[in-house]
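Continuing the batch. This is chain 6 of the set; chains 1 through 5 are on the previous pages. Same settings as before, nothing changed between runs. Recording input and output for traceability.
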Amino acid sequence: MGDVLAGFHAAWEFESDSVLIRYERGIRTPKLFQALGERSVPFDAIAGVTLAPGRRGTVVLRMEPRPGADPLLEAAAGQLKESSDPYRLVLPAERETLAEYYADELRPLVAGGGAGPAERHLVAAPEAPLHFKAYDAKASFDGEAVAFRWFWTGASSAKWKAGDQTFPVAALGGVEWRSPEVFEGYLRLAPRDGAPAAPAQVDQDPASVVFGLGYGAVHESLPFAAAVLAAVRRAGPVAVPAATAPARRDPADIAERIRHLGELHQAGLVTDEEFSVKKAELLAEL
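Output for chain 6:
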């Protein structure tokens, strides 16, 4: 179509076979959008297009990506807040007619891809090198291998004893990302089939880093997870790792997690009830 539709925080440029999403920079733009910069979304990656009323006099035009087409959404596993959805374009309500026009134009163009899961990633992952600081380590990815460098102030005794870790992409079977906006967020690397089972607790697993207050932010850790996941998929199919049995934690590590939980409570990020419940859960693991 060759047109550009600008909304809050982003603009969509309609090309012959894709939509180029350019995210704005600014203090009101979600940090994840700023980190992504721009993304080219092929029509084959889209299952449908919706238009719905938004909040405070806005309308929302959204592309519905096919499952498995975007490594970012695959890594996020449904944990992104609505305001951080990279496929939403929010516009003033008075532009609803224009948004409806573009929705009608897009629908027949994306119909060829179907609504079923994509056989491979169709949207490019964030490019390496990437790095971020977790609560217990600095994580880096150069496109070939993931490295964890432990912080002595945050790493558990099990991780510290294991030493700094490097994981070639060829040895990995997947990535598990838990948002830092929920309790005990983390990034965990899964081994390919045949590798030894990992400890059940992520703070004991040298193949994982734990997030915390101010560490492992979404706009840093999620693009990192997506880039690693895309590299793993390109390396070939893997078997799903078997579940591991729960393990008891070291009392010193339990105390450290409770201390961190207390920091979240004091910062107002955790309610009194949530603090009490989670503290009880941690104590029950002793």
